[in-house]
């Protein structure tokens, strides 16, 4: 049944991505690629890998933007991946039930054995989270590393999505948004975490922390002397040791 | 509906092995997961001191690096013309015989005719030692391109430096200022550090012409004009001095601010420190109102004021000279605003913020310590301001002095190796400068050098010049052209070898140095020099070239003999404290690589080959008296058993009986212990010895035990550099080793014992109206410090580069996004595609470096966009100065000044839509190995 | 959105086919169903060919067409699934109706209750199927040019118009028709033209989502793309990043307006006053021009649709 879960999932797993810290290094994108190309969505096919038009399946893509103007201008690196929406149109448009949202934790997945490759889910997603693997004829997407986060073959501390584990700038956080004490809930609360395109009504789970504003407050230094010579006179007899 | 059940707990791998990444200078710890002997996943090692579990894009793309179709497969012997890529595959035995034949003849007759230069490699402790054993002084790695201004300025001022020899106290700093474009080196530690700064709410200011990468997340971006950072630092220092916002206590105790400088113009002692008979520096003691040992515990040095000495000479404290230099109105915020593009109010505010962070946010740690003079301190005071500088400071012809100015600023704020400040990474601090001098030519053919080929001169007597003052080294390092060229000058090697200047060489032996492409300035001409023949003899002007690399890089085609290297996952290696350390301020660390995969090709690790060649050549360190190999087990044997001096070997961990660290006898079980520990060793420095290590007694005891110390003296910060003054005195005609007339003015000007700022050489020499823009190049984070990070995944992220132009400038020039433009410099022109941006200094254009590849290389199709749209800025950069035979380099250190480049851009004609210049395609790597569709990992899913 | 020819062919062909089948039912209920085998046989062959070829073409555009049966399962939530179910379901009443028409009915004014029921159900299912097709598009919120009520109206009316043009053509060629089909065609074309004119005008003034909220910046923040995640275009850009220049679109709108509406309307109006070969020629012109015009219209329907994901690649320029 491609209906969304009838009851809100008990856990709402997702990511908080800190745009104030993301330096745009693509570590998350590549580590995601290497984990998932051998994981439950394997392979993440690449076409023309050594030719003029290389293209491939990536669950996580890092854009760079310039925002604002003048001294308010910033360069913003923006990692884009599935937001695991509560109100996921990609799920409800699916004609086969391949696309589904898990009852237990809200993760949106594709059952590749049911997928007919109609691509409609990708049309239904405003965030571009769906990745069509043309050579496999099926749609793929971020699994929130469902084969890592519950994986008992991985040390408990590392049971987080690959992108979170690898992020050198600690700009990615994983957790349960239903738990008000989780790190993701706390960061969202304290840092004003934003949903993307909330007006679309998809109720995305992931949150993005906006770049912070640091006040420029220090008052100017006062020169202690007017001329170089008077300055030196001040220093002459200073015993400092 | 039946849905395929998912296994949320699949086995990841059947084997996990730890080793060390190789993609850049970070050298992170990695865990390599294998399944059926195939690479399943590479992740950061959470226990590793460098990366603490994180891993960047390069490290994460290791699988694709391993599976690159560009991998070399077998030794190659050139059969056609050089530069065409016509080779036959040969066996290793033949390859080693050829190399041994060439090298043995050189060593027998004139060993300096071997020029041995390595690129971005991580085993200089071995390669430099090998050159010493061979007896050639013509050895260096790529530091002359990269970092020597940074390293030399630090090592001649602090006894440590930015980059590998020191780093910010990320946990405690309140104000972090990062200078310079090209944010490589220490990439993961810096990213980890920046996140700590952000989490702690500290401020991050970036002074950088380009707002990318780390600068993107800076709380304040100062888009300075390239090459003028020194001016800004001067102005900041001026503001701090004017407001007395300096740590006078620190200055008098731990810097040479109070040391007396003799003022005796025209005489041989002018500008040198006043020393007593024992050579101890003197100060004017305000307590006794007389001379005193500046290093004694009771010294109360005057910081300003001329004193007439008993012998009639005049002496003045170094601080006096320094303050007069920096208080000059030429460095007022208003005065520098036009040159730097930094508004005066911004300079003033940053100065105030620095002062606020250093003094109002002072840190006090309840940890008693005792300084070198025996003064006991109950607490450790922290001034939580940190500075860090990148290649944007280093790769200018004024970089040495700019970097010195940064260190002076740190010292004035009292923020050196203190809590919250910049800190040394062991085995640093070293003596100022480190107590190793460059070695001259071997006394006779067949003999080793007296010491290492590279080192740190402390005066003209340490230069490698002959009686006429002419350079003894091929690259002219440690000559009057570049006296403090502590990393050598790889960027001059090919021109000098081609020109036979100062003398011809026989064999150029290079490793991981893409000299016919992105590792050279003036690339087009460099390629010509590599293939140029003497018309009289018909022989190549550079007679023989041996090259080792793991991949089919652009340089391979220019070799006569190619020795194929392994990948980093197929080899032993050691990342030694004798080389660039991986330590962090908390304590020393080193690491190894172990072979994870067996090569599927006939390749050998370069370092192993070097040892094998050494045995074949009978090099003294590698064979015993009877001519037998000292390290019959090859590279791992060498890693365990080789000792530089008794008890000091390549690896510091688990020596002796396995319980000794730092020093101790070789331990045959050492590598097993490393492997058990995740392939690294690290330990924490005791708390009492943790800070102020240059002057901390407890640290000196610790450093002694670990074998880190190279001097019995404390490491006093050298605001005023007597070493520089010694060279200046020589230029003024004092001493018995004088620069040739042609170099005197240069030496006198640039060997200023105090920091100075001057306009970068190219800017000063070209018609600035004709070349109105600065042009910079930096590596992107996804590939940085690794031009061989060129694989199926990374090239999707960045497969061709653009020239970034400030939007306002582009509008003025009528250039729109995606337009093709010509870029002209004094050295040539290139055609490239433009991209507009706001976050760049308006007088600056820039691009990502080494994205452009030559057609037919790197296993790519001939129409790959790396070749058709990608480009190198290198073609525009002169290797010599405009109308001047001097290298395009810093006059003090010889650091290649590739960021001095000035250009003009104009829109290309319609239809000009390919990057230019283009070169004949090379036959290239193993195209058969390049699949049309790549489904890496599919087998793991089927298997689970 | 990338104007894939398979999808353009599918929607135009199936629209026309269902339009014809719908008209067959309407004609039957109005007791105007021509019984001539010269009319009836080609009618059903053409109608079923159009419907089947359209469906087949849409199947071929799938990554895994062999799994198409799975697509019938999610009719409770998915318009695509509903369309599949309805399309297949429509074959039953319309097929039986065809058999009855061809082999059983012998009096136009008395087709019998079974045929009446089949005609009614068949016609309603035709409407429902085309409605579902339209809803596949109209339900997609990320594509503002599609997520509107008039998309459904246009699909229905244009399907009817194209069906009526074909029925009219068939009638003219076989000399069996009444004026009903052309009249319906004229009305549908006029309504369709009005709907499309309004659509074309208004899709350029749609309220815009902004790149600022797409990347989590404060609404109103100016956002300019600097570097894309990958140098070469990826699936999203190829599938959804298609852009047609406004000037080019204007030209195509004029072509679509002329071919789909102007020319057929003129031809049909003249057709009423003519007969013989000239009338046949006019009917041919009206039908061919109409269908061709609707293909252009459908191409524009895709090409002028901008997916919100393009905000990530082009910034606010994506919705200009």
Please characterize this protein's 3D structure.
The complex is a heterotrimer of chains A (241), B (944) and C (320). Chain A is of the alpha+beta class and 241 residues long. Chain A has helices at 27-36, 89-92, 120-124, 146-149, 162-166, 183-191, 228-236; strands spanning 13-18, 46-47, 55-56, 61-67, 74-80, 99-101, 108-110, 130-133, 138-141, 172-176, 207-209. Chain A has 7 helices and 11 strands. The model of chain A has no long low-confidence stretch (mean pLDDT 94). Chain B has 944 residues and is an alpha/beta fold. In chain B, the strands form 12 sheets. A 7-stranded mixed beta sheet of chain B has the order 5-4-25-24-23-6-7, with helices on one face. Chain B has a 6-stranded mixed beta barrel with strand order 31-35-32-34-33-38. A 4-stranded parallel beta sheet of chain B has the order 11-10-9-21, sandwiched between helices. Chain B is globular. The mean pLDDT of chain B is 95. Chain C has 320 residues and is an all-alpha fold. In chain C, 69% of the residues lie in helices and 2% in strands. Chain C has helices at 5-29, 37-60, 79-104, 112-138, 149-174, 180-202, 211-214, 235-240, 246-272, 276-303, 310-314, and one strand spanning 223-227. In chain C, helix 5 (149-174) runs antiparallel to helix 6, helix 5 (149-174) runs antiparallel to helix 10 (276-303) and helix 6 (180-202) runs antiparallel to helix 9. The longest helix of chain C has 28 residues, at 276-303. The model of chain C has no long low-confidence stretch (mean pLDDT 94). At the B-C interface, helix 25 of B face strand 1 of C.
**What share of the residues of chain B does DSSP label as strand, in percent?**
15-25%
Mean pLDDT of chain B: 95
Q: Based on the structure, what is the oligomeric state of the protein chains?
A: heterotrimer
Intertermini distance of chain C: 15 Å
Label the structural class of chain C.
mainly alpha
- Please compute the radius of gyration of chain B using only Cα atoms: 27 Å
> Would you tell me the structural class of the helices and strands of chain B?
alpha/beta
Number of helices of chain B: 28
Measured by residues with Cβ under 8 Å of the partner chain's Cβ, the largest interface is: A-B, 95 and 110 residues
Number of strands of chain C: 1
Helix content of chain B: 25-40%
* Main β sheet profile of chain C: none
| Spans of at least 5 consecutive residues with low confidence of chain B | none
Broad shape of chain B = globular
* Residues in helix, % of chain C: 55-70%
Shape of chain C: globular
